[in-house]
Amino acid sequence: MEVENGVLRFLGRGSAFHTDNNSAFFTKGSSLVLLDCPTSAFHKLRHIGVDTLTGCEADKVIVLVTHTHTDHVGGVGMLIHYCYYMLHLPVEVIAPSREVAEDVGYLLRRLDGCNEQGYKLLTADEADYDWIVTPILTKHTPELEGRCFGWCLEIGGQRVVYTGDTCTLEPFVEYLTQGAYLYTELSAYDTLVHLGADVLLRYEDVLKERQIKVFLMHLDNEQVIEQGAEKLGAQLAPLYHK
Q1: Taking phi first (over 0 means left), then psi (-120 to 50 degrees means alpha), and beta for anything else, what does residue 98 get?
Q2: Domain holding 161: CATH number?
Q3: Would you say residue 242 lies in a domain?
Q4: CB 24 within 8 A of CB 38
Q5: Average pLDDT per run of 10 along the chain, which is 242 residues long?
Q6: Global pTM?
Q7: What's the number of domains the chain is made of?
């Protein structure tokens, strides 16, 4: 299979119980944009350096939240502390809905004790960025029903659909325009809360017809998934290497 570089890079592409949890990033001008920030991603970012990731002197860090499981937001508070006290960089946290914003706000204010001057918490509706198309409500765990989202973005004129954690592709199909990049989680095991290969294969025809470039992330068994990626017309999400 021809290797496609994609639009996003990943600080980790593992599922909840892996060392490097799932976290993607891209840059807009001199701003670094993260999709989720688990603790593992924070430590990798700290080691690499924000300016290295942006390729210039950074002016802001933005975090798009998908949902509030620890392997997705566990490093956000530490990121805010580090950017405020060490880097003197503003951080914006963008939640997909008002309800998720309230949950994230409680985490940052009451549990992590972040200085209110160190960050701004916005909903997607409040964020004034033309590269945000829309958050996409999806299904993940019953305990977080109505509070799990993916994101539809336009990055450098390229449509990017990022599922976050999901057990279905159905909410995302309408946003997969011709030639779009799809970053979807994939599980090697049968589970009710994560997307399996059998579900992804149900959309094989539409993905081929629209020439969708498929990247697999949030991997629970990378070796098994890599072996089956070509059959799915996909490749593993690209990890960032300094």
Answers
A1: alpha
A2: 3.60.15.10
A3: no
A4: no
A5: 76 97 97 98 98 97 98 98 98 98 98 97 97 98 98 97 98 98 96 95 97 98 95 95 83
A6: 0.97
A7: 1
Q: Where are the beta strands (DSSP E) in the chain?
A: 9-12, 23-28, 31-35, 60-64, 91-95, 119-123, 132-137, 149-155, 158-162, 181-185, 213-217, 234-236
Question: In angstroms, how far apart are the furthest CA atoms of the chain?
Answer: 50
Judge whether 2 lies within some domain.
no
CA distances from 32 to 17, 45, 62, 139 (A): 26, 11, 6, 28
CB atoms within 10 A of CB 103: 17
Is-contact 158 131, C-beta < 8 A?
no
CB 219 within 8 A of CB 236: yes
Domain-located, residue 60: yes
Q: In terms of residue numbers, what domain contains 60?
A: 9-236
Q: How far apart are the first and last CA of the chain?
A: 25
On whether residue 89 sits in a domain, the answer given is: yes
Contact 120, 62 (CB under 8 A): no
Q: What dihedral angle (degrees, nearest 10) is formed by the CA atoms of 190, 231, 36, 67?
A: -40
The SS3 call for residue 196 is strand
| C-alpha to C-alpha distance for 149 and 8, rounded to whole angstroms | 18
109: tokens are 């204010």
